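Tokens for chain A. Residues wanted.
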């Protein structure tokens, strides 16, 4: 048996979901679950996380952000390439005999 390996969890059971029956959330160390206010806030946070992860738009937004980041990276690379080419041409023309 390991000492100090105790973890606390919040278990959410749902009958309304066709995909999930139960969700388990492992609490961070130092969370106070003794009061009903803390318990309610933990459930609200768990529900918020579930709502974000199950949202049909969450996956689409992640793809959009990835595409936008790729476009920005390509734009920065292209701009750097063009500026570098102009600098090389300018230096070549400046030092012609």
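Reply:
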């Amino acid at each position: 048996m390991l000492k100090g390996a105790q973890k606390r969890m919040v278990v959410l059971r749902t009958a309304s979901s066709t995909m999930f029956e139960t969700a388990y959330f492992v609490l961070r160390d130092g969370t106070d679950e003794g009061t009903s206010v803390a318990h309610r806030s933990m459930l609200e946070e768990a529900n918020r996380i579930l709502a974000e992860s199950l949202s049909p738009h969450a996956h689409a937004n992640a793809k959009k952000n990835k595409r936008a980041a790729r476009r920005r990276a390509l734009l920065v690379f292209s701009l750097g390439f063009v500026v570098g080419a102009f600098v090389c041409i300018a230096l070549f023309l400046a030092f012609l005999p």
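The longest helix spans residues 56-94. The two ends are 82 Å apart (CA to CA).
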